[in-house]
Amino acid sequence: MAQSTMTGIDLLVFGPHPDDRNAFDLQGTLWSRNPDACCNLRKVEPLRRKLSELKGWVTAVRRDQTKNRANTGKVEWDEKFQLVKVNPLADWTTRMVWDYVHKHNVLYNPLHDQNFPSIGCTHCTRAVQAGEDARAGRWAGFQKTECGLHVGPQPATAQLIRIGAD
Ligand code: SF4
User: Fold this and answer.
1) Can you tell me whether residue 86 is helix, strand or coil?
2) N or C: which end of the chain has fewer CB within 10 A?
């Protein structure tokens, strides 16, 4: 875990356990072979470690982001991580978010102005073309549409990391 301070906000930055990273992705190419396992290694399991210490977490998930998120509640029980999940923006639209950002001069990633409406990791995010879905640039070429933080049990293709991390 690393800690950094930006714009007056303390950030705790988590990553995979070095043993898991060395065991499952020494070359750093897992994303191109098994993105489910890569997300599990780099996102799901590190977050699980932190959330296991907490009683609740707050996310920016919105219903209009993906089909999987269409029924998101503002307050719900997170089966996956076993704690309360609060999604205050669940009923906000993309337009509402951007209106708020511009009105309140909120800092945002400049890639959003370069046709990256949804931004993941460097290797597997590309700019979208005119007419494409907002998340078409995420894991392009794979069926994958979610990193795994906001969905139920991991797909079987991610399990090798889960077993290795236990
Ligand atoms: S978003 Fe891509 S690079 Fe990042 S953890 Fe997932 S598969 Fe790996």
Assistant:
1) strand
2) C
Q: Quick one: average pLDDT of 48-53?
A: 96
Nearest CA to ligand 1 atom 5: 39
Enter the tokens of residue 147.
């990193």
Q: Write down the catalytic residue from 38, 39, 124, 147.
A: 147
Say yes or no: CB of residue 47 within 6 Å of ligand 1: no
Overall fold of domain 2-165 = Rossmann fold (3.40.50)
Taking the model in full, what pTM does it have?
0.86
Alpha carbons 88 and 116: distance in angstroms, whole number:
23
The CB of 48 under 6 Å from ligand 1? The reply is: no
Q: Is the pLDDT of residue 164 over 60?
A: no
Query: Could you give the CA distance from residue 125 to residue 140 in angstroms, rounded to a whole number?
Result: 7
Burial class (CB in 10 A: 0-12, 13-18, 19+), 152: exposed
Closest by CA to 152, choosing from 76, 68, 66, is 68
Q: Which residue has the tokens 């370069």?
A: 114
C-alpha 104 – ligand 1 centre gap (Å): 31
